[in-house]
Amino acid sequence: MLALSHYLVGCATLFKGTTQEVRFNSNPQKARVIVNSVDMGETPLTLRLESKKSYTIEFRAEGYKPKTYTISNRVGAGWIILDVLGGLVPVIVDAATGAWYSLDQTNIDAVLEKQQPR
Fold it and tell me: SS3 of 8, please?
């Protein structure tokens, strides 16, 4: 059964999926986490992000300077090799779903700097 399912989906789609869990922490805690201009909640926070995309992450807290990070993605060469060995269908599936990609960070710990009073 596994061999049949391998030919119907790509290796990365089957074993890894198209999302990754990313953990966000901050000092101070309860900083707002803004992902690609969308407020996703406050730290500590765990989100499942699509691995085929890149993200701009901003941490904001009252009385502190905002801090920005970038999460990029990269292609896992091993998945491509396994798909090519499996034939054309796994290549098409993994390429279309973006399952070949992995995020370059799965944990961000932001240390925010206090703003100077004006």
Answer: helix
Per the CB < 8 A criterion, the answer to whether 15 and 99 are in contact is: no
Both tokens of residue 72?
């990029």
Contact 101, 75 (CB under 8 A): yes
Q: What is the pTM of this model?
A: 0.72
Give yes or no for a contact between 100 and 80, defined as CB atoms under 8 angstroms apart. yes
Take residue 55 and report the two structure tokens written for it. Answer: 């993200």
Q: Burial, 8: exposed, middle or buried (Cβ in 10 Å; 0-12, 13-18, 19+)?
A: exposed
Could you tell me the two tokens for 12? 């990365």
Peptide bond between residue 44 and the one before it cis (omega within 30 degrees of 0): yes
pLDDT tens, position by position, 62-111: 999 999 999 998 776 555 555 555 555 555 666 666 667 788 889 999 99
